[in-house]
Amino acid sequence: MSQIKNVAVAGATGNIGLATVHALQTAGFTVTALGRGGSTSSIPAGVRIVTVDYDSIESLTTALKGQDAVVSCIGPFALGCQPNLVEAASFLGVKRFIPAEFGADTLNQQTRAFPILQSKVQVQKMLAEKYEQSGMTYSLLFTGLFFDWGLGNGMILGVKNRTGTLYDGGKTMISTTTIATVAKGITGCLLQPEETKNRGVYIQDAAISQNKLMELTNKVNPGKWDLKDASTVELEKQASAAYERKDPNPMSMSGSVFRMYFGGEAYGQPFKKLDNDLFGIKGMSDKEIETMIRNICTNDSKSQTFFTSPTSS
Fold first, then answer.
1. 93: Cβ–Cβ under 8 A, 6 or more apart, which residues?
2. Given its phi and psi angles, is residue 273 left (phi above 0), alpha (psi -120 to 50 degrees) or beta?
3. pLDDT at 92 over 60
4. How many other CB atoms are found less than 10 A from the CB of residue 212?
5. Residue 44 DSSP class
6. CA 230 to CA 170: how far, in whole Å?
7. How would residue 2 be classed by pLDDT, with cut points 50, 70 and 90?
8. pLDDT tens digits for 184-194?
9. What does the pLDDT average to over 269-275?
10. pLDDT tens per residue, range 8-44
């Protein structure tokens, strides 16, 4: 494959998108940030900013002219926009497309069966078809839960306030990756396109359980924990019932998320085969995790919001 130079990032102002823009620019790529027209003050100097209508293939085709690769960092509630991105990129002869995976292993048969993941599965099928039609290749980057983000907002555990929900007793080992390492993995896929062509790529900073995370947190932020217990089996049942009754609230199916991440080996957790070495990702030691937790605990940001987990009845 010829060299990739020009990269467009969709969803460039989100957590993953912004980190990816910085990582790509640092690696020497010419970066274009795509967005709907909101605030772009966080986008670094030297990055071209283009306002797009994700519902318009014509708009996206205009925006993607001259791009060698497209990275979709679109958020979970906007994934319906990705097919238009794929269509426009394929039409223009883009060389590599990286869709918004960055989470659970959707190549795992049990994981990909969840209704909330069908938009991702659809895009995977589209990418395979477009490769046959136009030669546009793709990389599916799987990262597990976002490590620092999930400890900062409580999705994994609320380490600052020592709160959280223990799923299935907190014993399950899960793959976790910091936002910075996710961006490093995305950049690595474009720096090594042949090695990451048309396949799932797996990275992690750590495979760790909630119980272990509490142990490490107690070393830097000791105190009493306020914990709830939840069964991921029951959460999945609740999510399935919400899907069957066509509940309009997308959060009503969030139990599926916890089942796919904390459900263990049946859902591909933790990852068995890693591509860390390909990108020079060393993983985090217990001491490094403690340092990360300490930094989260001493962050006085007033804008921090904490994730509210469902609990099984």
1. 134, 135, 136
2. beta
3. yes
4. 16
5. P
6. 9
7. low
8. 999 999 999 99
9. 97
10. 999 999 999 999 999 999 999 999 999 887 767 789 9
In a 13 Å sphere around the CA of 144, the CA atoms on its Cβ side amount to 31
Whether residue 270 is preceded by a cis peptide bond, meaning omega within 30 degrees of 0, is: yes
pLDDT band, residue 304 (cuts 50/70/90): very low
Tokens read off for 60: 């996206």
- C-alpha separations of 211 from 165, 208, 255 in Å: 11, 8, 20
> What tokens does 286 get?
């217990």
CB neighbourhood size of 133 (10 A): 10
Cα radius of gyration (the chain): 19
Q: Structure tokens of 240?
A: 């399935």
| Alpha-carbon distance values, 2 to 25, 65, 69, 132, 137 (Å) | 19, 17, 12, 18, 12
Q: What pLDDT band is residue 76 in, cutting at 50, 70 and 90? A: confident
Name the H helices within the chain. 15-26, 57-63, 82-92, 118-134, 147-152, 179-191, 210-220, 232-244, 255-262, 276-279, 286-297
pLDDT at 302: 35
How far, CA to CA in Å, does 296 sit from each of 160, 288, 300? Answer: 7, 12, 9
Tokens of 5: 């130079």
Distance CA 127, CA 142 (A): 16
pLDDT higher than threshold 60 for residue 227? yes
Which residue shows structure tokens 């995370």? 213
